[in-house]
Amino acid sequence: MATLNEQLEKINDYMYRIPQTYKQGMRVPGIIFVNETLLGLAKKDQAFEQVANVAFLPGIIKASFAMPDIHWGYGFPIGGVAAVDAEEGVISPGGVGFDISCGVRLLRSKLYADEIRDKLEDIMNALSVDIPKGVGIKGKIKLNKDQMTALMKKGVSWAISQGYGWESDAEFTEEKGCFDGADPSRVSEHAYKRGLEQPGTLGAGNHFIELQEVTEIFNEKAAGVFGLHKGQLCIMIHSGSRGVGHQICTDYVKIMDAAIKKYNINLPDRQLACAPLKSKEGKDYYGAMACAANYAWVNRHCLAHWVRESFEKVFKKSAEKLGLTLVYDVSHNIARIEEHIINGQKRRVCVHRKGATRSFGRLQKEIPAAYKESGQPVIIPGDMGRASYVLAGTETAMKESFGSTCHGAGRLMSRSQAKKIIEGSRLKRELEDRGIIVKAGKMSLLAEEAPEAYKDVNEVVEVCQGAGISEKVAKLRPLGALKG
Amino acid sequence: MNEIQKDFVIINHTADVGIEAYGKTPEEIFVNMAKGMFSLITDPESVSEEICFDVNIKGEDRDSLLINWLNELIYLYDTENVVFKNSKSRN
Description:
heterodimer; A: tRNA-splicing ligase RtcB; 7-stranded mixed β-sheet; globular
């Protein structure tokens, strides 16, 4: 039998197809957004096989999609997108991931990078004091159970009521910072306990806070709408739902593992464990996942609060005066009930985006009024050495990929591989030679996050542009990186 | 056949990282798997044995039992601020 790689069909320069006939049981074909270079890189692991496996999910519509930063994940590939019918379909925790609602938040400023070079070190020092970071670290906020319930139910508005952040921040967070359907009663004691002391903590792994400079504008109009211009200093925050999301995923993978037997769901990989959206198990997971989404938003919201405080200390000016305004906050690990037009008809679907970002085009009701004409900002974190991007959602994405695009550079090397060939302290020196200040909790963790461990984000973004599933607005380069 | 000297080996996996653990019995593999996992978090040599936890886990097959075991240790690590150096099975 022909291997998967032999059966891949080229649709155009940016799209490849895994035919539905590749495996018996696939309900739809696989569609992968890649160019030839990224195709070659992605072929090296099991990611494409995972794209084919996702096509087995009951209720899946059109295709099992993969974004150009695709790599091997748990059940679903990272970079996987699957929309299932809201009535007939299933929901899978593996299609969301362990760090539920991991995402990115971008603050802009009235500062120019050139004017504050001499302050960079001070800002980085202030951030490394003010931001709790590292694996399993305890934060500055300690909750009791009732407060945790309120946080998970209300999201960002809870944090604002406690004095964190600005009122206007909620408007510029996806879902206004409150995921519909959050049901704290579906969250286990274990997850509660892990969450009590972690709001406003960065974590480790690929999470970071970066100072960045806007180096290039590709779309003046959209950049104007997002308040971005060349030379501007921005702050990017990448973190997720910490131990809470991990525990909720862990708990529900177990529950779904039993559910696939109960509902007689035939899957090629146990890691795809799922349950019908309409079942108790499916509804419970959705309610718990929504709690983790709210937790993640509060987490990034509080981190941004302390970033503003650090800037106030260094510049001795208010964050308002410094113009530290939220551009947008996006999740790249989430499943969400949405309306999409399929064959001319409006349909309710549940879109799983795992390592993929919502990329809604202009006039979509979900995006802030201020961005209605430009499409939503899509924030793409790159690696510490290369670049990050702000893109805009497109109408093509609505038609081609259920309003989804890439989420980052995508790993190229495993963590252990990176650690073997890259030395943390040398990497820090090399980056500093290039003018990038690095503050990291652990040097070995830094090595795992080396630019070489990632695919080239420029290439990933080009494919999204070429395929039309998002449009380039601005490119940012790192000036300082705070890592766990 | 050569006797395997190592308790575990860290293996490459682009999703994150993999661990291959060895042992003469399932219990030994469980213990070594935990050692492998915590070796990713900290240098085991730097850990002193100060506190002991009782962990009760269930699983409907060996795979789930192993996953539940490791997840429970992650939970304790996250909430109790401890890393585990060694473990013993009571069954």
